[in-house]
Amino acid sequence: MSTLVQIQETPRWKKLLGHVGPGILVSVGYLDPGNLESDLQAGADHKYELLWIVLLGLTFAFIIQCCSARLGVATVLGTAFALNILFRIPMWSGVLLAGLNTLLLHGMQRYGIRKLEGAIGMLVMVVGGCFFAVMIKASPSAKEMVTGMFVPKLNAKGATIDAIALLGALIMP
After folding, report:
1. How far apart, in whole angstroms, are the C-alpha atoms of residue 10 and residue 94?
2. What is the distance between the alpha carbons of residues 117 and 36, in angstroms, rounded to a whole number?
3. In sequence order, which residues have a C-beta less than 8 Å from that of residue 141 and are 6 or more positions away?
4. What is the CA radius of gyration of the chain?
5. Contact at 8 Å (CB) between 97 and 83?
6. What mean pLDDT do residues 1-11 have?
7. Measured between alpha carbons, how far is residue 124 from residues 26, 29, 32, 128, 159 in Å?
8. Where are the membrane-spanning stretches (predicted)?
């Protein structure tokens, strides 16, 4: 006589939530002061005119992040190599630092990496909530936003410099 055991499949939304935590940690890279400053300065000087640069920059950043991830997986020495190029740290020291970093992150899992992801996620939500509240208070024109997002122009004085600053800040992480 045989017994059938029914295995319950994990819902799709729970599988998706498993990938949200690392995404939140990566999103913190876009909340650096340089990015915020260049975004705020460009918005104050040019209103919606440079929104198309934000769309273009985020597209480039996505492509570069994907290429960087593939390169890091292929070379294995990504962190040590980067430390060597940026700070002239010898490769053996870079390998030790990368290994120490890996051990530290794995050690943090004992206390629950989800707690760290949750804490950072809450901070990101606070920043996002503040931006959303300011956006509601400013009551932007939807028509001007769409036009700025999809109609490229660099007419105003200093727009080219601000566009370069935006691209640099968006692609940097």
Report:
1. 40
2. 22
3. 48
4. 21
5. yes
6. 74
7. 11, 11, 12, 6, 29
8. 50-73, 85-104, 116-136
Tokens 């997986």, residue?
Answer: 73
Q: Name residue 116's amino acid.
A: L
Q: What pLDDT, on the 0 to 100 scale, is given for residue 173?
A: 60
Instruction: Look up residue 142 and give its amino acid.
Output: A
For the entire predicted model, the pTM comes to: 0.66
Residue 35 CA from chain centroid, whole number: 11
Cα angle 44, 46, 65; round to 5: 90
**110 with 118: CB under 8 angstroms?**
no
The half-sphere exposure of 66 on its side-chain side, counting CA atoms within 13 A, is 6
Q: Is the pLDDT of residue 49 over 70?
A: yes
SS3 90: coil
Give pLDDT tens digits for 120-166: 788 888 988 998 999 899 999 999 999 999 999 998 889 999 999 99
Tokens (6 digits) for 106: 């794995």
